[in-house]
Amino acid sequence: MAYDDLRDWIAALDRAGELKKIRTEVDPILEITEITDRVSKGNYTKSAGKSARATQAGGPALLFQNIKGHPGAQVLINQFGSARRMNLALEVDSLDEVADRIRHFMDVKSPQGFLDKVKMLPMLAEMGKFFPKTVSTGPCKEVIKRDNFSLLDFPILQCWPKDAARFITMPCVVTRDPRTGKRNVGMYRMQVYDERTTGMHWQRQKVGAEHYRERLRAAASGSDPARSTAAVDIMARSSGGSVLADGDRPSGRMEVAVAIGTEPAVTFSAIVPAPPDVEEYLIAGFLRQKPLELVKCETVDLEVPATSEIVLEGHVHLDELRTEGPFGDHTGFYSLEDQYPVFHLTCITHRKDPIYATTIVGKPPMEDRWMGKAVERIFLPLMKLTIPEIVDINLPVEGIFHNLMIVSIKKSYPGQARKVMNAIWSLGQAMFTKCIIVVDEDVNVQDIGDVTLKALNHIDPERDIQFTLGPVDSLDHASRLPNYGSKMGIDATRKWASEGFTRPWPDEILMDEKTKALVDKKWKDLRLD
What we know:
globular; UbiD C-terminal domain-like; Pnp Oxidase, Chain A; 529 residues; 22% strand; alpha+beta; 23 strands; seven-stranded antiparallel sheet
């Protein structure tokens, strides 16, 4: 059965021995980050100068119950911080189960006759139960504040010393496409400016940013083309204060809702690379195998999960940007300050005694390691749908997901590795991948040692490395320009004569199976273990 809410999920973590409740007073300014960072890295030392004592990978989820300056508040962090907890969150024994469910739906063929259509009815009924439904009210409405509310009432963290302020780091940000009405749920950090305003860090390539641009285009419609172009450019420029002259500034607002402390399938759905026409609420229903209940917001025309711990309602002005950052990011470096829209709160609703759910990012490994790996495994079938020759992929945590992708393929024709590179760079968020290594299907991409041995043996650098230019992640501090730079692909597959390689290709050193079996029988007698 699906988790009812965040509290049901916390209870499940506790029963599974995956939760540590901390009653010692802790400060949300830096201190919770330092504790969580040590736990997530398996480093329980009392000081940085002493040798580390390793523990279970990822450490436990942490529920802080004595927060300095916030009596009675609780903070949940590191909830997804291990392979076991990711499985628990999605209620599976293995993430492959979710991938298999996706594969099952993708394998549906068009019905050829009446009997085929009848056979499809059970599957259609199963799909129907994933769609979200709107209910009249829910726990997130237990307390409604239209006046006299403040973000500072919540134990929002400042994570790292040079962060510009406190940041909301695990929000489910809900926006609506003004053209289609489709809702999007994304996870964009929010810098707290004061009691009622935050930054809205939707990067330029994110869906929330595209909804914002659509609002800008609509606001500029009917004006001269130069003004329309300038309005859209407000999200394409990254610094220098106001982009538009006062006479050209588009007017209007874009409604936004933010849910904090959702049950795990909803939280996870906010980070997945969803197909463009599929709502994250539907993905959450698919993951939890049960429809998600939504409630209408009080002051904006949007729906949020009914059991959310905290809901922030408000809007961004189309004519307002403000400096956001720096922020200690998952790259292990501070992302630099930049210009982003400003979120103005109009209402806060929450449960009684709300639990504040958050996360931290920084030098890997951290909690996002396990979330990113789950995305990798679950959405591999969708990648194979577009690039069928792919056997497996690995996004090493040390490559912070978008800096390195290792891909194994079933090679069938010359130049196929380069075709795969370009196909990956055309796929949604995969376009940010800085380095792609393509290997043959017999290479285990999850074994970095095997990849290193085969790839470095198989390449002639001048021949097998290609460079291209294109969009890069906004967090890439090394690119020649913000959001634009170079990428590298390495063809580490065996080279064929049809690719211009006429020398013999040597065989890999492998023991024959007969000898291995003989030694297996003698191993116990050899007493070498």
